[in-house]
Amino acid sequence: MEAVKLDTAKAAKTAPMAVRIVGKVLRTRRHEQFTYTTVITPAADQYSKPSIVEVRSKARFAERDEETDFLARLGGYEGRAYRVTDRETGEQKNLVPVNMYLDLVE
To answer: Which residue from 32, 34, 54, 101 has the least number of CB within 10 angstroms?
Structure first.
């Protein structure tokens, strides 16, 4: 496996943990003080499935079926640890899930 080289000129223009999302709005919902917008992105090719992401924002930024292009900040946190048993060895391990989220750069 070959190491990926970082394009320093491009990296200088992009904020850390920033992600550009391009896609079509499937739906929006409101919960407490935030709006959650579900966006479907174009598939990589005709044989793969498109990705679907949910973005949190302070206010609605796009309507249903509208095509959109925006920046979001990737964040995350560790969830509650739980025990799992390896089916092959029977060994018990402690698993810590990581929950990720996207916040609109406003």
So the answer is: 32
The residue among 42, 40, 34 whose CA lies nearest residue 104 is 34
Q: Is the distance from CB of 61 to CB of 68 less than 8 angstroms? A: yes
Q: Which of 58, 65, 60 is nearest to 24 (CA)?
A: 65
What's the CA gap between 63 and 67, in Å, rounded?
Answer: 9
The whole-angstrom separation of Cα 69 and Cα 87 is: 43
The one-letter amino acid at 64: R
pTM comes to 0.76
- For the segment 1-19, what is each residue's pLDDT rounded down to a tens digit? 445 454 555 555 668 899 9
Encoded tokens for 48: 């793969």
The residues pairing with 54 across neighbouring beta strands, listed in sequence order, are 38
**d(C-alpha 55, C-alpha 42), whole Å:** 16
